[in-house]
Structure prediction request, 193 residues.
Amino acid sequence: MADERRPPAETAAAPEPRRGFMTKFAAAFVGALVGIVPLLAAGVAFFDPLLRKKKSSGNEADGGDGFLPITTTQNLAADGTPRLFPVIADLQDAWNKFPDTEIGSVYLWQAPDGTVQCFNARCPHLGCTVNYKSDQSAYVCPCHDSAFSLNGERSNDIPPRDMDPLEAQIRNGDEVWVRFQKFRAGIHERQVV
Prediction:
């Protein structure tokens, strides 16, 4: 018989040395770590403003109690006529800060007993800014003729409620501070926005 030669049996692949596996594992781990750390930092920076606890008014000047400085008592009319004052605060959305921004306006007047009365200047009907008509001693909305007496009570059936009163305080002798709030327009109950 002829000598048949058999092809050599295929040798099994030699197992990879343990050191090579550990090197590849360590390289993959370090690469993943190097890639994930910047992603985590970016995620924290992106979501931090959304997760941060919101301040009462967004203004450091309020002392944390929601009151904002508006004017001094010398700027109030001596005869008790209401005057319109802008409300200035630092406005901040999630990522941007807008310092010294007008966030609304208020009417201030000093009552005969010396207390300061304050109303939000927005009409509770549709949110337009009301005007004070000194010849009528009334607040009148230019949008839909809503009218209010000097003490903020509605004079006709157009607005759903009286003007929105705000808490005012005199601090440091003559500074007028107001707890400014905005209310939802067009509804009967006062609902802070």
About this structure: The chain has two domains: 17-52, 60-179.
